[in-house]
Amino acid sequence: MKLGKRIAIWIAASLMVLVVAAGLLFWMRPLAVLEWYSRQALTRAGLKKTAVETSLGRQVLWQGGSGPTLVLLHGAGDQAGSWAQVAPALSREYRVLVLDLPGHGESGPTDKPITVGVITQGVEEVLQQKTNGPVILVGNSLGAFVAMLYAHRHPLQVARVIAVNGGAVRNDLKGLTLTPTNRDEAGKLFGAMRDPYAPAVPGWVLDDFIRRTRKGPLGQLMANRKDFESNFLDGHLSEVSVPVDLLWGEADRLVPVEYAERMEKELPTSRLTRIPRCGHVPQVECPQTFLQALQKILLKPQSPMPQGKVVEGALKEQ
């Protein structure tokens, strides 16, 4: 057999092995593969990966663009890549910082339990080093909780908050668990987080979520419920002096739109925008509609006014 033919056969065989290995990895650890892809997408879009040293260890973030500073905070158990489908467009008008929250992604700490208090402390230290002046905080789920805590504690450092399907008051999970131990519990959780007409999450993906939750940041957060209780702002939302926009995927049954309506009544300056046919993580589930809604909100700054009653018109998926 000629040398050239042997090399071609070897290359083809090697590629086949790689394809099989990649398929096996995706089947065994699909969430890790999807996270890797989304993080690579941030870099491919031109956002620069960087890190800062804090008392909690190394904190990782992506940054890009210029203009007013827009900080994107993901939810519990997630990572910066969840913003990959919207951050590039936002960086055309803003200086965008996309954080791996403390204990998530590649951010420390690695030597202490992850709590809301620890996460908020880490975000405070990152923003002290990376920003100069008031910022716009956009937080999803736990990220919205942290954004509101930060605004409550540092109002002069925040221009406005956009809370996406999350906040800093108690929520009744109505029988759902964030730390499922079997496919039935995990299926119900994902079903509540997504539009009812969305395709069901495959069982092998649910299995991976269950495995990751046991020892991951979400599991650690749920193991420290007292810390959650100590950080809630129930009865103190009137002290949040910065404008707050509530941007809600109204198909969310984990943190339903009634939760947003309750916050809207208590916040001094707020307004609610609903996104139909979209669930708990709209920047992933319906990114184009979410981006359209977010950009519309950003173009219409709120003026100081009495308790928020303005409700933006619903937006439809294009």
Protein model, in words:
With 318 residues, this protein is α/β, with parallel strands linked by helices. It has one domain (31-312): Rossmann fold (3-Layer(aba) Sandwich). The protein has 12 helices and 9 strands. It has a 9-stranded mixed sheet, sandwiched between helices. A hairpin with a 2-residue loop joins strand 1 (48-54) and strand 2. It starts with a helix and ends in a 6-residue tail after the last strand.
Order of helices and strands: HHEEEHEHEHEHHHHEHEHHE
Multimerization state: single chain
Spatial order of strands in the largest sheet: 1-2-4-3-5-6-7-8-9
CA distance, first residue to last residue? 57 Å
Number of domains: 1
> Which strand-content bin applies to the residues?
15-25%
Q: Mind telling me the CATH superfamily name?
A: Alpha/Beta hydrolase fold, catalytic domain
Provide the low-confidence segments as ranges.
5-27, 305-318
By helix and strand content, what is the structural category?
alpha/beta
- Characterize the main sheet: 9 strands, mixed
Enter the CATH topology name: Rossmann fold
How would the blueprint of this fold be written?
Blueprint lengths: L2 H26 L1 H15 L3 E7 L2 E8 L4 E5 L13 H4 L4 E5 L16 H15 L4 E6 L1 H12 L4 E7 L18 H11 L9 H13 L1 H6 L2 H7 L12 E6 L7 H10 L3 E6 L6 H4 L1 H13 L10 E3 L6
Parallel strand pairs: 3-4, 3-5, 5-6, 6-7, 7-8, 8-9
Antiparallel strand pairs: 1-2, 2-4
Helix pairs in contact: 1-2, 4-5
Compact description:
Helices cover 43% and strands 17% of the residues. With 318 residues, it is an alpha/beta fold.
